[in-house]
Design goal:
5 domains, six-stranded mixed β-sheet, about 35% helix, four-stranded antiparallel β-sheet, 18 strands, 17 helices
Length: about 550
């Protein structure tokens, strides 16, 4: 492609900014002929130096009266033909034809619909495009670990021995009940150092997850000897990233991570934890391809080989992102920042399993000292009284056994309880059979103790020789500091005073009726601003005897 001089290109851009219409087209056409470039190339070069031509004033305005809801209905019709192999098969014209026939969006052209699809990123090209990679950053070694399960492809276990089967596909069990070899990889996100652990099961289990995390977070050993100088990767991270699944969301896993101070970050896709996905690919290519040449005799031997290979690979192979050996970079930067503190897990696997318990769950003890937990029945020891509550926990390594302790007391001793075996009717197989083994109810220890105590109390009551009162002052010591008080003056109690209105209401309440006019006048004459109870009683007595109307004599009527 001919190269356009920068000065000439900038001159053309300045000239086009002053022209319009046909003059601008003529200038562009002359420039194309001078440098023998295509119109698209010239537009692209002008765009690079910041030259913009005005856009249409009606750009983005839909000329038809169709709404987004109608266009969404057509997209739903088209999406009904989705194929996992080809994507959406139905053309836009066919979907529009069906929509017009059903009265959904009449009079719509395919160009208008496709323009709307482009604005919504709904075209076939947009839908088939790969999801962009999510770039993440961690602050150093042991800040973020990523963990993921995968199947050892084409390997199954028969008679406790790994066997290769070329007809077995990935993520598909060879047969019902036949266990597979699962691979768990834990990767340090910052340095890329990783650890792998194999387990045998029919699927992803909590036991396999916790076992893999324990061996990844503890100091690596081989034949009982530490290899920390060759393979230093160890320690509990601040954040653990994992897929959404039953193993990572189980109560045991969440409770254990909380006890270790690890924040669980659930990832929604493989691209958000690309480090562990790359580690799986490296492991399949560089490690598992050797297994057909030298098949392992047991899973323990396979895990020993995995430790040796991971130690060698992390110490010798350079990471493409930071250009250093994984083990060297991890050992150099550990403990350099607060987020990269080395929190070592220095305990045996049995001690680790002991703390791998669910959070306590409150359960009620039944009358027969039976606790119902996870659709099973457990009989608790006699120290737990019926109708009280206990805290129940369990470990995936010992389930269906459970641990029971006093409710609300974390330091109380825990008791291991087995599930009660029941028959087809739901009765315990160890219960007494009516008629042969059971004839009358036997009293428990508590009832027997209470009965014996009541029998002994009758001896003291009937004897009448027990002194329970009259000796307490003899057993009370004198105080060293005598108490001193102030004498309060006691005067004659003054009568209670009521207001005139309150006194009148008291009179009405006492006689049980409203006052007549003569009675009201008498009350007003007798009561002052403050009225005593005695005055109220005197007025009530006078009213009950009767008070007539008062007659006034006028001087004009006298002779």
């Amino acid at each position: 492609m001919p190269e356009i001089p920068g000065a000439e290109l900038r001159g053309l851009a300045a000239r086009l900014a002053t022209l319009s219409g046909r003059d601008r087209s003529t200038a562009r056409r002359e420039f194309l002929g001078l440098y023998n470039v295509s119109p698209s190339t010239l537009s692209r070069e002008l765009h690079k130096i910041g030259h913009r031509q005005h856009s249409r004033c009606d750009r983005g305005i839909r000329r038809t009266g169709h709404t987004d809801e109608q266009l969404s209905h057509i997209a739903a019709l088209q999406a009904s033909s989705l194929s996992l192999r080809k994507g959406i098969v139905m053309p836009a014209a066919t979907a529009i034809e069906i929509a017009e026939h059903n009265g959904i969006a009449p009079g719509l052209s395919p160009s208008t619909y496709n323009a709307w699809l482009r604005s919504q990123s709904g075209t076939r090209r947009d839908q088939a495009a790969a999801t962009p990679h999510v770039e993440l950053r961690s602050l150093g070694p042991n800040h973020v670990h990523q963990v993921d399960f995968s199947l050892a492809i084409n390997w199954k276990v028969s008679n406790n021995k790994p066997i290769y089967e070329h007809l077995v596909y990935k993520n598909k069990l060879p047969a019902e009940g036949v266990p597979r070899i699962w691979r768990l990889i834990v990767v340090d996100h910052a340095t890329g150092i990783f650890a792998a652990r194999y387990s045998v099961s029919a699927g992803e289990t909590v036991q396999a997850l916790l076992e893999g995390l324990y061996h990844a977070w503890t100091e690596k050993t081989l034949d009982g000897q530490s290899i920390a100088r060759q393979y230093p990767f160890r320690g509990v991270p601040k954040i653990l990233m994992a897929d959404r699944g039953s193993t990572t969301k189980s109560g045991v896993t969440v409770a254990l991570l909380n006890r270790l101070g690890v924040e669980l970050n659930i990832c929604e896709g493989a691209r958000s934890k690309g480090s562990v996905e790359v580690a799986h690919r490296i492991w399949e290519e560089h490690f598992e391809t050797r297994m057909r040449l030298q098949p392992p005799q047991s899973i323990d031997q396979l895990n020993d080989w995995a430790v040796q290979f991971a130690a060698h690979y992390c110490a010798t192979e350079r990471h493409s992102r930071h250009g250093s050996e994984r083990s060297t970079l991890w050992a150099w930067h550990i403990n350099r920042r607060e987020e990269t503190q080395l929190r070592e897990l220095r305990c045996s696997f049995d001690a680790f399993k002991a703390i791998a318990l669910t959070d306590p769950q409150k359960c009620k003890v039944g009358g027969a000292r039976i606790v119902r937990f996870r659709s099973m029945k457990y009989r608790v020891p006699e120290c737990f009284v019926p109708n009280t509550f206990v805290d129940v926990q369990f470990s995936p390594f010992s389930y269906p056994q459970i641990q029971v302790r006093e409710h609300g007391v974390p330091t109380a001793p825990a008791y291991l309880c087995e599930p009660v075996e029941v028959d087809e009717f739901g009765f315990s197989v160890h219960a007494a059979t009516i008629g042969s083994e059971f004839k009358s109810a036997k009293q428990g220890r508590a009832a027997t103790f209470a009965k014996d105590a009541q029998r002994g109390a009758k001896t003291f009551i009937e004897g009448g020789k027990v002194e329970a009162f009259g000796y307490h002052l003899e057993r009370t010591p004198e105080l060293g500091v005598p108490s001193q008080g102030v004498e309060l003056p006691v005067g004659e109690q003054k009568p209670a005073l009521l207001t005139r209105v309150a006194a009148r209401e008291a009179v009405i309440e006492t006689i049980g009726r409203p006052l007549t006019a003569p009675e009201a006048g008498h009350v007003n004459r007798v009561f002052g601003e403050a009225v005593t109870e005695a005055e109220i009683a005197a007025v009530v007595s006078e009213i009950q005897r009767g008070i007539g109307a008062r007659v006034l004599e006028f001087a004009a009527g006298q002779k």
